[in-house]
Amino acid sequence: MRIEFQVLSAAAFMPSSCWGTYKRVALVQVDLDELRFGDSEPRMISERARGVMTIIETWEKLNVGSTKRCAYEVALAEAEALRADWEEKLSRQRQAARKAAHAARIKDHGVEVAAFQGIG
After folding, report:
1. Domain range spanning residue 22?
2. Would the pTM of this model clear 0.85, i.e. be above it?
3. 117 found inside a domain
4. Which candidate in 59, 107, 113, 116 could, as Cys together with 75 as Cys, close a disulfide (CB 3.0–4.6 Å)?
5. What is the predicted pLDDT for the residue at 37?
6. Is 95 domain-assigned?
7. CA-based angle 36:91:85, to the nearest 5?
8. pLDDT tens digits for 19-75?
9. Which residues contact 111 (CB under 8 A, 6 or more apart)?
10. Cα-flanking dihedrals φ and ψ of residue 103, to 5°?
């Protein structure tokens, strides 16, 4: 199971009275082994999408402007910062799990050595 966090964007559904381009942004947790062959990201922002484990957060109906200060660009930057935080948490959890597994192996190995030597 290869897990990673991805920032996705898609077109937002708006009424015909709204002019301009609107998008939505989402931070999703993805199982890369569940994606179709050749895909690097899910095809839609949905819990039902292939490979999506959870949707962490969404930003809806963002106006796409011409500068970096538009709502869409601000949300993308915020989502990337949040993705970095979640990646850091995941790496800390993996590191703690590796340490615990290593400690368990050492403990088991110590028991095996003691039993072999007739100590225990």
Report:
1. 3-90
2. no
3. no
4. 59
5. 87
6. no
7. 90
8. 999 999 999 999 999 998 889 999 999 999 999 999 999 999 999 999 999 999 999
9. 120
10. -65, -40
Contact 78, 86 (CB under 8 A): no
Distance CA 61, CA 47 (A): 19
Which tokens hold the place of 105? Answer: 């192996």
Q: Which amino acid is at 22?
A: Y
Span between the terminal Cα atoms of the chain, in Å: 38
Contact (Cβ atoms closer than 8 angstroms) between residue 44 and residue 28: no
- Judge contact between 28 and 54, C-beta under 8 A: yes
Report the pLDDT value the prediction gives residue 103, as an integer from 0 to 100. Answer: 80
Give the integer Cα–Cα distance in Å for 54 and 83.
13
Residue 98 in any domain: the answer is no
